[in-house]
Design goal:
Layout: E1 9-12, H1 18-29, E2 33-37, H2 71-82, E3 86-90, H3 97-111, E4 116-119, H4 134-164, E5 171-176, H5 179-183, H6 191-209, E6 214-222, H7 229-234, H8 256-262, E7 274-278, E8 281-285, H9 302-315
Parallel strand pairs: 1-2, 1-4, 2-3, 4-5, 5-6, 6-7
Antiparallel strand pairs: 7-8
Helix pairs in contact: 1-8, 3-4, 4-6
Amino acid sequence: MEQLCKGRVVVITGAGRGLGRAYALEFARQGAKVVVNDLGTQSDGTGIMSAARPPEGAHTAAEGGGAPVSAPAQQVVAEIRALGGEAVANTDDVSDWEGARRLIQTAITTFGALDVLVNNAGILRDKALVNMDIADFDAVIRVHLRGTFAPMRHAAMYWRGQAKAGRQRMARVINTSSSSGLYGIVGQTNYGPAKAGIANMSIVAARELERYGVTVNAIYPTAMSRLTEDLFKSGRLDPKARGGPGFDPLDAANVAPLVVWLGSVSSQGVTGRVFGAKGGRITVAEGWHAGPHIEKQGRWSVSELAQRLPDLVRRAAPNAELSGEIPMAEA
């Protein structure tokens, strides 16, 4: 069977566990060479698990510096090599400007190129708005929003340089949004806005990078992981999904085929889109768009709006539920 990503060089952030690990393994099965990036922290971004000795040939950065290879990154590299694939570990902090640069350089120095960037790294620090402190807000925004921007910026510079030198690559970026960012989850006034920003960032970047042969898309996956386990237990995420006998609809591996296809040359022309993935369902999110309106030739007065706006809101579709579906109007 033909490998869809044979020879392509892929960087995946947060690839030591959960969704990122599933992506790394599937890319490897499809013939890609993978840079497995993971700090090895806890789900809230604190603490780092370090391996006593990195595997032979593993490094943390192209220049040879950086922290010890994290146990999760090392384990995924070992899994990929056991499959007969090529992989290298990286433990740079993707939200750090120089760390993100080193990550991208690791791919170029180790494998000679970069074709795909999957921004997947993330943390959670959920609290109600009235209980959230600025440190919890800043940490989540930094890892998700800045941690998506910084690697994408350095990758874009490489791809622009390649295009200007007449070596334009069929490059791909797959960013990670969330149903929280698109539809809203209680207790995530830090995580939700970060993920909403990533969806918008992906659309803007798609328009800017198209000239260099780069497509940029985002996904909002639903799967069981360290970050989502408590959400499922609390009922804030609906665990229900269609599944046949022997099929786990919340398995992270269910999302991997979509990500790998978006990273392949076969996805050319698909850009600026946000895809949902849950179990066996793939959804294209349609995003914000203008709804019903009122208009006059001049400025509205407050009293006029008081009379007109309630009806305008009634005519507009309600906000989507967490599933992304718009509730049916009552008869």
